[in-house]
Specification:
about 70 residues; about 65% helix; single chain
Amino acid sequence: MYPGELAGLLALAGPALTREILLEGRLLTAAEALNKGLLTRVVPDTEVHAEALVTGRRIAAGAPLVAKWH
């Protein structure tokens, strides 16, 4: 079994990308993370707050039990 953060990264990124991230020890750019499937979207810094509000409203408007389960 792997510790919490490592288990989460393995589940999200898979073993090959996890090894790349850990062995290279560098930060990925937003574009790289998006390209590798670690993000669902990238927005300009000036739009982060507005995008977060839109996303929060979309989640709140959805099925509450499903959001709670996930």
